[in-house]
Records
---
Amino acid sequence: MPQTSCDVAIVGGSIAGLRAAQTVARHAPDLTIAMISDETYPPYERPPLSKVGLTKPLLLDALIYPAVNDLKSHGVNFMLGTRAEELDVEGRTIRHSSGALQYRSLVVATGCEAVMPPALSGLPDVFSLRRYEDAISFRRALADPLKSVAIVGAGFIGGELASMVANEGRQVALVDLARKPLGRFGDAVFRSYEALHRGAGIELHFGEQVTDVVQQGNGSRVLKLSDGTKVPADVIVVGVGVRPSTEWLKRSGLRLENGIVCDGTLRAADHVFAAGDAVRWPNRRWGAEMRVEHWTNAAEQGRVAGVNAANDILGSPLEVCANIPYFWSDQHGVRIQFSGHRAGDEEIAESRNSGGSLFLYRKGEIVTGVLAFERRADFVKIRTMLKSELSWQAASSLISREDL
Ligand SMILES: Cc1cc2nc3c(=O)[nH]c(=O)nc-3n(C[C@H](O)[C@H](O)[C@H](O)COP(=O)(O)OP(=O)(O)OC[C@H]3O[C@@H](n4cnc5c(N)ncnc54)[C@H](O)[C@@H]3O)c2cc1C
């Protein structure tokens, strides 16, 4: 088995891995970098996979991050189509599908993979959406406008897909086991979310379980739900969640508990740092341990893990990762955004006007987060202020009194 070596190894070729590579290249340009990714494409943007309209082309070249070219010129070794299979922390070696890679410091950025319920796994025209090829297969299956579409899972990806399909004037059903999808952000947020989809003509089946998938005599297919309803489902897209891609680390000795457990500097073990969707770490900004499955966090952690992987070699102090989780989602022409941290026991103050809705999460006199349907300017102001401790008085003064 061929063995190669580098200063900084990065496993995972998406946004966290890319940002780590960019940061090392900038921060310590003399260090050699290798990136192992089991995808055959260089790092590309995932968010457009559930947002680009079905009738528009989804071109890989337009999705690949422009920074990839700079990194190639810098000499980064992109080991694409290569699967990391085992990590030897003591020996600082990654065993992978075509050999082994030795490193001085490592960034693990293997992210997450989509969960597929066993009852739906292996059936024709059933898709999850995580990678470019998933999106291409799903779009191909939808090319026949007569095919019915059911989406199982009404989280952000399910909601975006429902919006994408409905936007083409097609009938789509959205099914979720939870009675109140997005209810973790509060009942009022759930109601806004429900109204958004209902208003766009989506058939909603919340609080129902899929009990069977039935192929009918006429060639069409339906999902049978726990209340007995039959939902047309020639094409099924599943968005019921993801799990950290950490199987390959099972024997590494790293602590794996619904993610790679790291300290505040994203350090998982000697000379090993981690970044992105797969990471569980204590976020000092909130005094809470968390794992975040959103793009901005993965980018920010990629930067910190990159600095720290380089500093580990240079003998410089490590940086702490204390950030403000943020996500956005685009559904039916409405941008939904959240910033902050919701533990679950905060009071929620609601502000609605013709520009949209704003929800402020409040613990005593402190604002811990903000969620908005549109209201982009208000949202940006509060998101910016959340960079430091934000008092209720300061946040509420930004919104006109009659809105609250
Ligand atoms: C369709 C879609 C839409 C999204 N939209 C939004 C949005 O609107 N807003 C938002 O905030 N977030 C969004 N997200 C989430 C966001 O894309 C993720 O948070 C982000 O991609 C996480 O980046 P990551 O680098 O941690 O991991 P990932 O993107 O999961 O990438 C991990 C990489 O590691 C590779 N890998 C895994 N295991 C191995 C191994 N053993 N060996 C080699 N390589 C391996 C994978 O193939 C992959 O390339 C969306 C995600 C999807 C799928």
---
Amino acid sequence: MDIASASPRCYFFEVMSVFATAEHEKERLQYFASPEGRDDLYQYNQKERRTVLELVPPLKTRAFSISSSPSAHPNQVHLTVNVVSWTTPFKRKRAGLCSTWLAGLDPQDGVYIPAWFCKGSLPPPPASIPLVLVGPGTGCAPFRGFVEERATQDMSGAAAPIMLFFGCRNEENDFLYKDFWLSHAQNAGPLSIARGGGFFVAFSRDQPQKVYVQHKMREQSEWVWDLILEGASIYVAGSSTKMPSDVMSALEEIISKEAGVSRETAVLQLRRLEKNGRYHVEAWS
Ligand SMILES: Cc1cc2nc3c(=O)[nH]c(=O)nc-3n(C[C@H](O)[C@H](O)[C@H](O)COP(=O)(O)OP(=O)(O)OC[C@H]3O[C@@H](n4cnc5c(N)ncnc54)[C@H](O)[C@@H]3O)c2cc1C
Ligand SMILES: NC(=O)c1ccc[n+]([C@@H]2O[C@H](COP(=O)([O-])OP(=O)(O)OC[C@H]3O[C@@H](n4cnc5c(N)ncnc54)[C@H](OP(=O)(O)O)[C@@H]3O)[C@@H](O)[C@H]2O)c1
């Protein structure tokens, strides 16, 4: 389509006015599309040789969690990116713009990637605080960084343990960072039982019924509660729209069962944890 050289017609402004969300922009576009605005449109549009490309908004930025620790990889930032693709009801293949572009890059080409850093919603935890981390799929991204960081902190004194719940579809196909998690779950690593930590994985499609991270959490109910009593912070990250609320509901169940309180009291306790900065969620769809 000729979006970079053809000058848009009056109809373009009329259509754009339907989609404009800011009232002053809507009014201006409607004015340009009206007979009264014809002269002004000529001055603004044709005379200036404006193009459609110039008039549409720039691409929106995409956020990615940093999945490496600055101590383990100084001057590097690792990302864990899922290549988004799906089939529409009319069987057309669609692909995510940014993730597909990233996946097609060749590091040898030295392509410049414009990137910014901004503070996320998961604050870096101090080494002394035990952690319960829940990150299915690409939700494990920030927690790879957390585990790496803690493994580095271990070298300069005993850091607190981590319980990590990871989930994916199949053990064979998408068990992200398998060797990394398993190695840190051994030899007194931050995820090792010897240190009071643990690594638990739910393969959702390796058996007829679904197994999710929250099922694994319920299996470790007593242990999760012990770690909360020891002052653990809970972090949840991932892409599923339902996952964060399902995980929260599993935690309410765990608190209710292990503390022997009603569900309503468990809900209040979880809310208090959130208020005290001990429950964090970063979710995307
Ligand atoms: C705080 C934050 C952290 C994030 N961290 C990560 C991360 O660590 N790793 C990661 O991979 N992503 C992460 N994301 C998501 C990431 O920002 C992008 O949204 C994602 O990579 C898709 O971008 P894209 O340009 O490839 O897809 P786009 O071109 O933007 O397309 C995505 C859109 O396609 C549509 N779509 C996608 N799948 C389907 C489907 N099955 N059916 C119908 N429509 C569909 C939806 O409208 C969706 O919004 C994060 C997002 C946020 C907000
Ligand atoms: N083609 C592939 O092989 C493939 C593989 C991975 C990802 N993807 C694409 O990538 C997108 C995002 O990927 P992702 O890796 O971040 O996440 P994801 O694959 O969508 O999910 C990760 C895991 O979370 C499970 N899950 C789904 N609903 C949940 C819930 N309510 N509570 C707890 N766990 C839940 C999923 O199980 P179920 O999906 O079995 O329900 C899966 O095991 C997906 O939407 C998909 O389009 C494709």
